[in-house]
User: Fold this.
Amino acid sequence: MDKPVEDKNMEQTQEILDRINQIVQAKETIHFLNCYRGISISYEGVLREMGQNSAIFSTRKYQLLCMRLEAVTYLQSNLLPEIVKARVSSVDIGREIVSLTKFEYTTSSIGNRMQIRVEPDEPVRTVVINKLGVACEMIEISLHGLSVYMNPANFDWRLFQRNSRVMVEFTLREPNQGRSHLVRVPGVIKYVSVNTQNRTIRLGLFTSPDNPTEAFLSHYIASRQADLLKEIRSLLEIEEQKDRKQTGGLTPRQTGGLPPPT
Assistant:
């Protein structure tokens, strides 16, 4: 008789926690992986306390902010066979600690995000063309790639399957100028992902811009990244203020619990 799913998850959590202990003993590093509107956020984590089915880590405040926003994080280490996904139980930005639980291996590609990606600051209508053009919504963009949502009603697997060659058209506003810039680039569909809950289809494309287009995209992505980093800093200040109000403005040592990392 097969074990219940909950028992299997518990066993995997225990196996991963044992590996984390081995990583600490071997003095290897663990890096957390999160995303904020397309930007990868990755800082090293330090184990502070190990529970029966959970672990407490310290890490940088920007990482903690993203953990709080996403309610999950991903762990990567040379001594882990795969990327590990963990649920965020609680975050204390003031003490710079996070409690994680429900560890599991995942096939997520988050660890392969080599290029800087950003979400546009406004909805961007993107047309993917292969014999016929289908209007999509841009999710995020990098210098040589982008991802889009396509309405399932418009999806034709014969035209938009993996490795299909397409043309992509969209318009972006030039940074600090507001003028619209039409972009037209050839691309190849690298993955097709179906989300049955949201009833959406996500396409990931590799694109090959010419030199002028690449220069424009590089400028757009750098400008957008700078804006998003400012946004992260502002959000962090807001979250820190909320935390201080909840603790009555007391310092971490006055509120008890784990001491701040040294």
Remarks:
- Helices lie at 5-25, 61-70, 211-246.
- The CA atoms of residues 168 and 202 lie 15 Å apart.
